[in-house]
Design goal:
Largest sheet: 3 strands, antiparallel
CATH architecture of the largest domain: 2-Layer Sandwich
Number of domains: 3
CATH class of the largest domain: Alpha Beta
Strand order of the largest sheet: 1-2-3
Radius of gyration: 56 Å
Order of helices and strands: HEEHHEHHHHH
Helix content: 55-70%
Oligomer: single chain
Number of strands: 3
Shape: rod-shaped
CATH superfamily of the largest domain: Band 7 domain
Strand content: 5-15%
CATH topology of the largest domain: Tetrahydropterin Synthase, Chain A
């Protein structure tokens, strides 16, 4: 019975009370709310390699590809594995087709230039393939590709021989440069040696003794004999000059000396000096003429 002291409720109030009573009587515990599935991410990696022609089709590039595929969804693990395997087959086919067309743009000896271009083309083709064919059960796929381009072994042998020749040439150039630098240093040292030692008559004998210290005594004897011969030759020359002067009068001596000097100038390629001022003798000669 209702409490007569409380005001009577209308139809809406009685419905609200009935719903409250229904939940308070344990209906909620008997039928729990459904639990929504939680998305799960599965990652797989596949590696494969293949040969594809380079520019000119005479040699091949060896292409190594690493595909990292991520699948995010609420399906069972077995189903996700099957979907990933199917996607890998499709992406491998796409990769081979893209690589074959791109690799032919590069010569077989330029794998370094081909690698980044091939990687970009492969990544773009994979993203386009995943976007163009979405999964029917709502599984999202994301794939990252890493591509390595290797040169043909025959090209590698040719490059090794070429690099070996370059290394040898560089070594020769470096040795030549070092030799030139060393020769320049030696030239300076020898120039100083000649400049300091040339005025000294004993320099040749000192060099001989420095090169062969065991023959010092023989070098000293040769130096003494040479000095005696030079002194005797000088005495003989002075004697001949003195005898010639005794037989030659002053005019003949002057003429002979002047002619000798003129020939010496011509022999050495030195221009003859200008004649000095005329003498009293020349004035008298002109007057008599």
């Amino acid at each position: 019975m209702s409490d007569p002291s409380q005001p009577r409720k209308g139809l809406l109030g009685r419905v609200v009370d009935w719903v409250k009573g229904l939940f308070s009587s344990g209906y909620e515990s008997e039928t729990p709310a459904p639990i929504l599935p939680v998305p799960k991410t599965t990652r797989r990696t596949r590696n494969f390699s293949f040969a594809t022609p380079a520019k000119g089709d005479a040699y091949d590039f060896t292409i190594e590809v690493d595909l990292c595929l991520c699948a995010t969804g609420t399906v069972h693990d077995d189903e996700v594995g099957t979907k990933i395997a199917d996607r890998f087959r499709d992406l491998e086919t796409v990769t081979r087709n893209v690589v074959r067309g791109t690799a032919r743009e590069f010569p077989p000896f330029r794998p370094g230039a081909a690698e980044p271009a091939v990687t970009v083309r492969v990544q773009e083709a994979i993203e386009a393939a995943l976007t163009g064919s979405p999964d029917e059960e709502g599984v999202n796929f994301d794939c990252t590709a890493v591509v390595r381009v290797q040169v043909d072994p025959a090209i590698r042998d040719l490059q090794r021989r070429s690099i070996a020749e370059q290394v040898q040439a560089e070594a020769r150039y470096e040795l030549s440069e070092q030799a030139a630098q060393r020769l320049g240093e030696l030239r300076v040292r020898w120039a100083e040696f000649i400049e300091n030692g040339l005025p000294e008559w004993e320099t040749p004998y000192a060099v001989l003794m420095a090169q062969a210290p065991a023959q010092t005594a023989a070098v000293l004897d040769a130096m003494r004999d040479d000095r005696k011969k030079e002194a005797q030759g000088l005495v003989d020359t002075v004697a001949r000059v003195a005898a010639g002067h005794e037989r030659m009068d002053l005019l003949e001596f002057a003429m002979a000396t002047d002619g000798t000097l003129a020939k010496a100038y011509d022999l050495l390629g030195i221009p003859r000096p200008e004649l000095g001022p005329e003498t009293l003798f020349s004035e008298r000669e002109e007057a008599s003429v």
